[in-house]
Each structure stands twice: as C-alpha cells, then as structure tokens.
Amino acid sequence: MKTPIILVNYKIYNEISGSRGLELAKICQEVSKKTGVNIAIAPQMIDLFYIAEKISIPVFSQHVDNIKPGSGTGKTTLEGIRATKAVGTLINHSENRLKIADIENIVTKCKELGLISVVCTNNLAVSKAVAMFNPDFIAVEPPELIGGDISVTDADPDIVKNTVKVIRDISPKTKVLCGAGVKNGKDIKKAIELGAEGVLLASGVTKAKNPREVLEDLAKGAI
Amino acid sequence: MKTPIILVNYKIYNEISGSRGLELAKICQEVSKKTGVNIAIAPQMIDLFYIAEKISIPVFSQHVDNIKPGSGTGKTTLEGIRATKAVGTLINHSENRLKIADIENIVTKCKELGLISVVCTNNLAVSKAVAMFNPDFIAVEPPELIGGDISVTDADPDIVKNTVKVIRDISPKTKVLCGAGVKNGKDIKKAIELGAEGVLLASGVTKAKNPREVLEDLAKGAI
Amino acid sequence: MKTPIILVNYKIYNEISGSRGLELAKICQEVSKKTGVNIAIAPQMIDLFYIAEKISIPVFSQHVDNIKPGSGTGKTTLEGIRATKAVGTLINHSENRLKIADIENIVTKCKELGLISVVCTNNLAVSKAVAMFNPDFIAVEPPELIGGDISVTDADPDIVKNTVKVIRDISPKTKVLCGAGVKNGKDIKKAIELGAEGVLLASGVTKAKNPREVLEDLAKGAI
Amino acid sequence: MKTPIILVNYKIYNEISGSRGLELAKICQEVSKKTGVNIAIAPQMIDLFYIAEKISIPVFSQHVDNIKPGSGTGKTTLEGIRATKAVGTLINHSENRLKIADIENIVTKCKELGLISVVCTNNLAVSKAVAMFNPDFIAVEPPELIGGDISVTDADPDIVKNTVKVIRDISPKTKVLCGAGVKNGKDIKKAIELGAEGVLLASGVTKAKNPREVLEDLAKGAI
C-alpha cells in the first residue's frame, strides 16, 4: 500500500448512503489520479461490494467480526471481504471496539489471506500493545478529539510523534496513521512531519459541501 | 409482500460469498419467475447493495442496528438499507439477537420508512411479545432445531400452529413464517398446512449441491 | 410483595459503596418499620449478599445474566441470587438492557425459583410486550427522564396511566411501578393516583444529603 | 502479593453459591495457614463483600467493568471492589473478554487505586500485548484446554515457558500464572519449574469431592 495515504471512513452518514456513496468514491478516485496521492475509502458495510466492484482505488471494510464462514447471520468475515475485492479492513474503530483476542486473531488471519489490517487505537499504551500483533497499519485517534474541530495534529502532536517512535521499535513494518479532527491539507502536512504515513478521516470529507475541493486540498498537503 | 414466501438466508457461508452470492440470487429469481412462487433472499451484509441492484426479487438485509445515520463505523441503518433498494430486514435472528427496546424501535421505524420487518423469535412467549410491535412478519425458529436435519414442521408442528393462532389474535396483520431444519417441498407444504405463510431457511439451499433443484422442489411444495 | 413499594436502586454511586451501602440499607429498614411502607433496595452487585444477610427488608439484585450455574466467570445466576436471600431481581434496566429471549427465559425461571421479577421498560409498546411474560412487576422508565429533575409523574403522567391500563388487560397479576426523576412524596402520591403500585428510584435517595428525610417524605406520600 | 500463589476462581458453580462459598473460603484459608502457601480466591460477584469481610486470605473480584462510579445499574467498579476489601480483580477472563482499550484503562486505574491486576490471556501474542500495560499478573490459559482433563503444563508446556520468557523482557515486574486443566500438586510443581509463579484454577477445587485434600496437594506441589 503506497503511502502517504488518505483513508476516508464513510461511517454511516446520510450523505454517503446509496448512490451518493459511489459518487464520492469516484471523486476520491479522480483526485487520486490527478494528484498521484493514494486515497482509499471505507464505505458503509452494506455498500462494500457494490462500490468495490466499480472503482479501482483501494477499498476497506469498516469492520470485521472474528468469525469463520458458516452460520453468523448479519456478521462479516475476512473471507467475505476478500471476495468483494476490498483490500483490507479497519479493525477496532472507536465506534466498534473489539476484544483483544479477536484483534489478534483477525490481524493474524489478514496476513494469511493477504488483506491489509488497519487497527485503530485510542492512546499510546494501546498502540504499543497492538504493535505486538504486527498489523500493517495502526491508526491512532484520541477519542475525545474524534468528530471535533481541532485536528489531533494540533491538539496533541505528541501522541502522533510518540506513537510513530515506539511503533518503529516494536514493529518496524507497521505504519502509523493518525486521525480525529483532521480536515485539511495543513493537518495532513503536519501529520507527515510528525512521522505519520497518512490520515484516517471521516466527516471532514463526507459532510463537506464540496468534497472534491477538500480532497484536493488534503492531497496537496500530502505531497 | 406476496405469500407464501420462501425466504433464503445466505448467512455467511463460503458458498455464497463474492460472485457466487449473485449467481444464487439469479437462480432464486429464475425459479421464482418459472413457478410464480415468491422467493426472497437475505445476502451477506457486505454484498447487500451489490446484489440488490442486479435482481428484481425481494432482497432483505440480514441485520440492522438500532442507530441513526451519522457516526457508527461498521454499523447498518434502516436508511442505508432502504437506499440499496432492499425491501426490508431480518431482525433479531438467533445468531444476532437484539435488545427488546431496539426491536421495538426498529419495527416502528420500518413502518415509517416503508420497509418490511421480519422479526425472528425462539418460542411462543417471545412471539407473543414481539406481536405487540405489529411487525410484518414473525419467523419462529426453535434454536435447538436450527441447522439440524429435522424440519420444525416435523419436530414441533405445534409451535407453528400455536404461533399462527396466537399471533392472529394479537396482531392480525402479522404473518408467520417458520424455520429451522426446513429443507424441501414436503416441509414447506406442511408449514402452510399448519397456517404459516412461508419459510425461512438457509443451509438447505445455500449448501445444496444443486440449489435450483432444491428451490424448485420448495416452490412446488408452496403452490 | 406488599405494595405500594419504594424500590431504591443503589446503582454504582460512590455514596453507597462499602459500608455506606449497609448504612443506607439500615436507614431504609428503619423508615419502613416506622412508617409501615414497604421499602426495598437493590444494592451494588458485589455487595448483594453482604447487605442481604444483615437486613430484613426485601433486597433485589440489580441485574442477572441468562446463564446456568457452571462456567461463567463474572456472571450472575438466579440460583446465586436466591442463595443470598435476596427476594428477586431487576431485569433489563435501561443501563443494562437484555435481549428479548433472555428476558423471557429469566422471568420464567424466576417463577420456578420463587424469585420476584421486576422488568424495566422504556415505553408503552415494550411494556405490553414484556407483559406477555407475566412478570411480577413492570417498572416503566422513559429513558429521557432518567436522572433528570422532573418526575415522570409530572413530565409524562399518561405513560404511567396507560401502562397501568394496558398491563391490567394483558397480565392482570403484573403490578406497575414507575420511575425516572422521582424524588419526593408528592411524586409517589401522584404515581399511586395514576394507578402505579410504587416507584423505582435511585439518585433521589442515594445522593440525598439526608436520605432518611427523603425516605420519610416518600413513605408519607405512599400512605 | 507473595508467590507462588494458588488462585481459586469460583466461577458460578452451584457448589460455591451461598454459604458454601464461605465454607470453601475458610478451607482455603486453613490450608494456606497450615502450609504457608499463598492461596487466594475469586468468589461469585454477588458474594464478594460477604466473603471478603469474613476471611483474611486475598480475595479477588472475578470481573470489573471499565466504568466510573455513578449510573451503571448492575455494573462493577474498581472503587466498589476496593471498598469490599478485595485486593484486586481478574480482568479479561476467557468467559468475560474485554475490549483492549478497557483492559488498558482498568490496569492503569488498578495502579492508582492500589489494586492487583490479573489479566487473563489466551496465547503468546495476546500476553505480549497485555504486558505493555504492565499488569501485576498475566494468567495465560489456552481456551481449548479450559475445563478439560489435561493440564496446560502437560498439554502445552511451551506456552508457559515462552510466556514467562517474553513477559520478563517486556514487563519484568509482571508475574505469570498459568491455568486450564490444572488439578493437582504435580501440575503446579511443573508450572513453577516452567517459570510460572502460580496457577489459576477453578473446577479442580470447586467441584472436588474433598476440596481440602486437593488444596493440600496443590500447596505441597507449590512448596
């Protein structure tokens, strides 16, 4: 996965449901092509395959259950995600926290299946713990800043810098993203200066009046 | 929703992930057209929109969360389901049980949004309780028979007959489906004789060597 | 269980942990004896047996899991509750909602074990559903009023009156309590006028500067 | 906390509910005094304070929620546990797994409150992750061996040896316990030879015909 990366989490906003989710995906794809910056998306669960089959930028699942194919009505497996052509999955997002044994098992299975694991964490200690599983990405997001107006890169630059530093020691191949309040090119530029290899963001793009402009500004900051 | 109905729950079997889920959906559609029997499907969550946009038989979500559009990474809203053109959702499946206040709220919201609610229950008492919410369908499935070899219509015909009877008194517009072990035309014929307006089944179709044959046999039983 | 009843839910407030929980229990007992009004308590889970063995007014568990004795580290069984001499349990409190099949199973098992079931509900529809299980008590508490300053008896008297009315038709032996914002004798008097047989309250007593005074006022309202 | 330690998890077996739980606690205490080996217990949640006030050997909670004192009917706080005179708590038992952020927060808060944290883990990778939080104890229990007849020390001695080794590097002050299938003095002797500082066990004691004999045999193995 080429970095720096801008990973857009659609969450379950009205603004991205149905055909609007696909429209936003196409805008992400166009801006990515135009700027050369890697932009990835995590659409609503029920739109995953619908969108993944129609675009060529990387698509992630927002969530996965630690469950094998079989029974499990309403659940989602890594095998199912892979079959949609999605490239990986968010794991343990603050809105969908997982048990530690489940995170470990999912990250391990991602490696077997060739899927990219992006484990979300809330602080330095949890990032260090998760680093023991050697995921592809750790996305650190202080919960108190999620959905807020101040970017983590301004509100708590140390958490980004320190996460990058300690993860490098524990799991050198794991890349660090940061998130929470990230909204523009300035924020992502700062994130990269702090050592992150990209950002995870949501409302800054999905609820923007003009998502294309926001994405172009973000991409500019990432170059 | 025309009845009798054969509602095929895909669960998360390997046999229905990726493009194979769409193939099975097309077979269901063909058998439905050929026989005139209403066949509906509940695909994997992540395949919902992908499949729903490509076929014309009724598509249901396997699950929904009692959550509003907005934050909620990895969750599923009724609004999101409606935007995929799915016609409704399973609620409270035995593999994804819900809290009672959530069931009530989801059923109420289904009515507002014009979605069909299919609430799964495990016994007569719970069916009676759920009937108070006036869902479109109650699908009674004794948990000990789910995934087994003996159809609920043979193993416990009384639960079907009694559920039909008591639901008629409490909520006359609610239709009763039955499930657990249902596998062939004989089973669905018996279900209809017992007063049910259809069946909910999974492995009998999804894991069949020849799903078309199984579906045609089921449809024959439903006529 | 004699009614009207004042059922004091200790929740997990600092004010009632350790020996202070027992002190409050003794005050409840003294006021009950003095006034002749039935006052019951639901202490912290970990204090249940400690308090139950030392007082003679009715003690309830705050919660129970739908699980059999055996494995289940950290869980609570009805059999375990009964062995502490507690007389029953709250079920499905708004801070600890249960799945519908679990509520049904717990209420049924309460009858077998001779324990008193107090099922909490959030609105009229859920109360009607729960009435199908014929619990001993239904305690209706509109969630938006819990912990607030305005008593449900003032903010939404109709929900109390209507719950009493519909429950009487469905399950004549089930008694109705109301809760949320209940704080003084005036509130409980109103509750009884609306047809309730008592109140469920928490912070109004547990966080009171002088719990004895509050309890005496409540008891006065209940006479 | 003196080691080696024999930590008896009561779970929710019928054999330890009510007064029988106290009886077993007294036997543990007598054997501990007689042999000089540290024996600790984790009683049923609802019996915690009842037992803790009556005995002097260390008492642990079986579980704790990551929640502050206040609202939270049916939950358990560290503050509440401390007020019962219990010395600490099991965290993340295989029958009550926690989210990773909750484990981190609970372990951190245990240190602030002077409580002993015993975090249960299922394999080497999860043990390493948890070691990042520097708990007082890590109790590794391969889930497939829990409740079985073969002790982890025979079935998988390497997991014990390797856990001890890696934890020593990551968090030198964290002590390792092992569990699953542990039943007699021979098992605990082997555990100590493998580097563990004690065992966590349940049915081997709680369901024994003669718990005193079993405990004496265990204590002998620990000397």
Question: Can you write the helix and strand succession of chain A as a string?
Answer: EHEHEHEHEHEHHEHEHH
Assign the CATH class of chain A: Alpha Beta
Quaternary status: homotetramer
Q: Report the sheet-strand fraction of chain A.
A: 15-25%
> What is the count of distinct domains of chain A?
1
What shape does the CA trace of chain A take?
globular
Number of helices of chain A: 10
Secondary structure elements and their pairing?
Four copies of one chain form a homotetramer.
Chain A: E1 5-9, H1 19-35, E2 38-42, H2 48-52, E3 60-61, H3 78-83, E4 88-91, H4 100-113, E5 116-121, H5 124-131, E6 137-140, H6 152-155, H7 157-170, E7 175-179, H8 185-193, E8 198-201, H9 203-206, H10 211-222
Parallel strand pairs in A: 1-2, 1-8, 3-4, 4-5, 5-6, 6-7, 7-8
Helix pairs in contact in A: 1-10, 5-7, 8-10
Written overview of the protein:
4 copies of one chain form a homotetramer. Chain A is of the alpha/beta class and 223 residues long. Chain A has one domain (5-222): Alpha-Beta Barrel (TIM Barrel). Helices cover 42% and strands 16% of the residues of chain A. The first copy, chain A, has 10 helices and 8 strands. The first copy, chain A, has helices at 19-35, 48-52, 78-83, 100-113, 124-131, 152-155, 157-170, 185-193, 203-206, 211-222; strands spanning 5-9, 38-42, 60-61, 88-91, 116-121, 137-140, 175-179, 198-201. Chain A has an 8-stranded parallel β-sheet. In chain A, helix 1 (19-35) links the parallel strand 1 (5-9) and strand 2. The radius of gyration of chain A is 16 Å and the shape is globular. The mean pLDDT of chain A is 96. The A-B interface holds A 9, 11-14, 17-19, 42, 44-51, 53, 61-63, 67, 69-77, 79-81, 83-84, 86, 90, 93-96, 147, 202 and B 9, 11-14, 17-19, 42, 44-51, 53, 61-63, 67, 69-77, 79-81, 83-84, 86, 90, 93-96, 147, 202.
